[in-house]
Amino acid sequence: MQRGDLPVHGGRTLAYVYDSGDPEVDRVAREAVAAYAASNALDPTAFPSLLQMENELVGFACDLLDAPESAVGTVTSGGTESILLAVQGARDSRPDVVRPRMVLPATAHAAFHKAAHYFGVEAVLVPVGPDFRADARAMAEAIDDDTVLVVASAPSYAHGVVDPVADIAAAAAARGVRCHVDACIGGWVLPYAARLGREVAPWTFAVEGVTSISVDTHKYAYAPKGTSLLLHRDAALRKPQIFASAAWPGYTMLNATTQSTRSGGPIAGTWAVVEHIGDAGYLDLADRAFAAVDAIVACIDDEPALRLVVPPDSTLVTLATDDSCDPFTLTDELVSRGWYVQPQLSYGDAGPTVHLSVSAGTRAHVEEFATALSESVAAAQAAGPVAVDPGVVAFVEALDPTALGDDDFDGLLAASGLVGASADGGLELPGRMAEVNAMLDVASPAMREALLVAFLDRLQRPVRHEARGGAR
């Protein structure tokens, strides 16, 4: 069944997965996950080994992120849950605020918008500067008496640059507001970047005013999917995050995360990997990852049709194309050559870009990437720009995304090329995505959301027993 999936090893998948390049890391992780797959972190008194692992993981991260002795932390299921909890905890710490708000740079991760939707916290978006970093002065001016949280990124996902955390945290502290640093991407690699002599702006708990940090272990800790950490400067800041309920006849529910039952597998896998790699190992892996970043930046500089959107502060590289090279076709061409990269659609006045998440496992294959990139640019230039049918554009523009019916959705899906009919009557994904992405790019953000919601809804339909052809 995995034959059609993206490869998770080999350093060529530059989104979604993070590859250390070391098969032994994968072996250690698999064995630990399997050993604890049936364990439940719901009750730490029932599985004290999981509690010990969680506390040791938090301790490792505290040392990494300059946390004071008072710091505490929680293992979550991923960066989004860490962010959700940071927002929920900030909201619940201020019961006096009727309409809570949080101040975000426009480049903050979409998980904050998810948290706003879930928890009724208004997201106040502040435009970023020309360097794609948060505008600290504008963010300070956006803080008011209803603000419960101010956010900075280290780095931001779309562009890979670190916000001016010191200035943002100072502004938040001056108003008595929490400041969360989203370091889900950079938290486990930027400290090593600094030790390797690379320039890194201050962003950890060493910065006064930073009250919490999210850092994903399933990224540059190279641990199995399903773990992240949310650290707080002290226990009082974490307390509103913890949920308890005795308002029913069963056990008194007590949860430090949004989950109740939590598989011990990802926790054990993460702990085993961190113990196996260790501090010196992570320094070496960071060195390899940044060597890959530098080499890829050089590849981009060698292609006249390409440019860096901004020099990367971390391991995320974002490139743009000139008019001779369609970015969506470039993405397809790289994918066809075994390199998965992620297209990013237009936002505001900025055009579409191509995004790469570089990990240590990519270092050994950079020369192959250089060849694939050069060939892909030439192929994209030969193919020319992707043209969206004017009739399709007019159809999309005439629709109200808030009032679409099933027929409208079906028409959009068919027009976009997102789905087609397979031999068994189901949905078939397109082999190339350039035309699909070009159509999405001309749609408004609200229409993109509506279309992709319909797309996901059509994809996730049950496969009945008879269709599988198995015996009960």
UniProtKB/TrEMBL annotation:
This is Aspartate aminotransferase family protein. It holds the Pfam family Pyridoxal_deC. Keywords: Aminotransferase, Lyase, Pyridoxal phosphate, Transferase. One of its GO terms (biological process) is carboxylic acid metabolic process. InterPro entries: GrpII_AminoAcid_Decarb (IPR050477), PyrdxlP-dep_de-COase (IPR002129), PyrdxlP-dep_Trfase (IPR015424), PyrdxlP-dep_Trfase_major (IPR015421), PyrdxlP-dep_Trfase_small (IPR015422). The lineage of its organism: Bacteria, Bacillati, Actinomycetota, Actinomycetes, Propionibacteriales. The modification N6-(pyridoxal phosphate)lysine is found at residue 219. Its cofactor is pyridoxal 5'-phosphate. One of its GO terms (molecular function) is pyridoxal phosphate binding. Belongs to the group II decarboxylase family. Sphingosine-1-phosphate lyase subfamily. Transmembrane segments: none annotated.
